[in-house]
Structure formats: C-alpha cells, structure tokens
Amino acid sequence: xxxxxxxxxxxxxxxxxxxxxxxxxxxxxxxxxxxxxxxxxxxxxxxxxxxxxxxxxxxxxxxxxxxxxxxxxxxxxxxxxxxxxxxxxxxxxxxxxxxxxxxxxxxxxxxxxxxxxxxxxxxxxxxxxxxxxxxxxxxxxxxxxxxxxxxxxxxxxxxxxxxxxxxxxxxxxxxxxxxxxxxxxxxxxxxxxxxxxxxxxxxxxxxxxxxxxxxxxxxxxxxxxxxxxxxxxxxxxxxxxxxxxxxxxxxxxxxxxxxxxxxxxxxxxxxxxxxxxxxxxxxxxxxxxxxxxxxxxxxxxxxxxxxxxxxxxxxxxxxxxxxxxxxxxxxxxxxxxxxxxxxxxxxxxxxxxxxxxxxxxxxxxxxxxxxxxxxxxxxxxxxxxxxxxxxxxxxxx
Length: 397
Ligand SMILES: [Zn+2]
Hints:
Layout: H1 15-24, H2 30-37, H3 41-53, E1 57-62, E2 72-76, E3 82-88, E4 92-98, E5 104-111, H4 118-135, E6 143-150, E7 154-155, E8 160-161, H5 175-180, E9 187-191, H6 192-204, E10 211-216, E11 220-226, E12 229-230, H7 262-266, H8 268-277, H9 285-293, H10 297-321, E13 325-329, H11 336-350, H12 353-356, E14 360-363, H13 370-383, H14 386-396
Parallel strand pairs: 3-6, 6-9, 10-13, 13-14
Antiparallel strand pairs: 1-2, 3-4, 4-5, 7-8, 10-11, 11-12
Helix pairs in contact: 1-3, 1-14, 2-3, 6-13, 8-9, 9-10, 10-11
The structure holds zinc ion.
C-alpha cells in the first residue's frame, strides 16, 4: 500500500481547496470564497453544499455585516471524525485519539520496549486504540486516519522502517498493512523526531519556514523543517546527527559501532552510564534529569557539558542550513536550563555570525506530547488535503 501524495494537484477552487480556505480562516463566507477563487457564486454554492452534506463544514451563524441579511459563516467541523496516533520511543509509548483539529480527546502513556518487535508492539497499540475509541464514544468507522512515529528511519511513502538500529524485527516491516485489516483508513508512519518537529512547528512556529528540532533522549536525533515541510532526505535518514563524530577519543564507543559519536558523549544513555560509574543510581535519561533536579553538582555539570558538545555539533548544521529556530526536546531537555545554556555556548562559539544573528534557541513547549500532536497533524493534513477531500466527495457522488 502506497500513501497517496498528500497534496496532489487539486483543481483550483475545488471543494477540497475551498475546505482548505475555510480551515485556514482565509475565506469563511460564500462571498469571500467566490472573491478569493474568482469562481462564480453558483459554483461555490454547489461545492459548499457538498462539504455541508459530508459534514466537513457547518454553518456557524451570521457574520457582522454593514446592512441587510448577514452572510452565513462557514466553519470546519473538527468532529467530522477522529484520528488515532501512536508515538513509539525506544522504551516508552504514548497513544491518543484526536479530533480533526489535532486536539487530543483521550490518551495513554506507558513503558513499552520497541525491541519486543512489531507484532507485540502494534498489538499493544491496537488494544489501546480500541479502549480510547470507547472512552470518547467513537467507533472504527469514525477513524479517518492513523499516524505512527517510530524511533528509527522510515521510508515515508511505504511506512516501512529502514534498517532501524534499535528496533530488532522491524526492518522493512509494513506498518500500514498491519493496520489495514483493522481500519479502513490511511496509515502514515514517520520517524519519532520528525513527528515531534511537525507537532511543535504546527502548534508554536507555523510562520517559521526553517526550524530544527533536536531530541536529546536515550539517543540524539534532529527533525528538519525546511520551507515549512519536513525534510527526510533520500532514504529517510536526514537529521541523524547522533552519529556525527564529536571526539577522537578511542574510548568513546557508540552503539552503532563507531568511535566518538555525539550520542555516545551527550546522549541520555551515555550520561546515565557515566553517572552510574561514578556511583550514582542512574539507569536512563530520566534518572539523569532527576539528579539534576535534586541539585547533584556532577549531573548538572555533565548535562551542561553535553549541551556544549551538542551545540558544537549543531554549529555545523546551523552554518549549513541557517535555521531561524532550534527547538530542544526529549527527556534530557527537561533539564533545559542547564542543557540549553550549554547548547547556546557551543553554537555561538562555532557558528558564523550571520547564521546566528536572529537564531532562536528554545525548549520544546509541547514536551512529551509533541510526538502525538505531530502524528495527529501528519494524519489530518493527509486526509484533509484538497486532493484527498475531492477524491472522497467524488467517490460518494
Ligand atoms: Zn554512533
């Protein structure tokens, strides 16, 4: 199953294109739609009727008018279905059911080891989906789309992980096909950092064209928003900054097998391991954050140093890509006062002045919900793309 191109070339002013104008608030009356598209009022009326019939828009009442009968305002019906989303990390998962505006209606978070393999993990996800649908009083028929994030590179068009290093059994596994027997809705799959970047960008930085979201959790990854779109690269591996060489020290051995990777110095797992070697109780990135919060001087210094190393590696990306905003998320970013101070130092010490002049470096505001939010937006933007809406209406005609 191939994912249809989300935007296609819809006819200008098609019903799907009108829905886009209404959703964006660019034109919300029939007269405005006619003005913006240049189409005849009668054509607009016909296409708006089709959207009304399918429950995609509703008439929200009269707008303020200078006289006469106020024109009827059209509003997007965010309850015209739901999307199911899952954000699967290395050891933790979050699932949610969202309305068509991307607002979570119910959600669950739990420990889940991705190394259990696709059948066990997706089985767990599917059971939670059923529970969540029941909780919000919806059925499988209401599901318009499914969005899934996984902690590895993904071939986006087919929804298959590509040689994911920490996901045994998942290589080339067709995640959309697994769901196809259970739901008659399109399934979109992307890397976990990409869905975080999409969520944070959509909610807080939509006017920003060029943004990097750096996730510092167990490992380190980077989601790239270029010209307002997720940039995945040729094989879905763009932004894999965790394995940039950050030191020549032969003792720094990475889980990828190479020496001196950024992640092996500054990733949450590496920090936890070093704290454990110094006698602290630390098994994972969340323990590192706990020690920082408790004021443990060694942990604080270590996170700040990790930030600086990360910043020095990011300086190359800043010079190369010239982002306007860098968002820092992931477990370790919970200790953002220390981490971001280090990241700023590292970037400013190594980047060109022009590239950093207006550069904003901030913590991820959606926190651990950035992933499910982005997965919902990924699914919604696909099913409500003008071309997809036109196909839906044509199929029903
Ligand atoms: Zn590595």
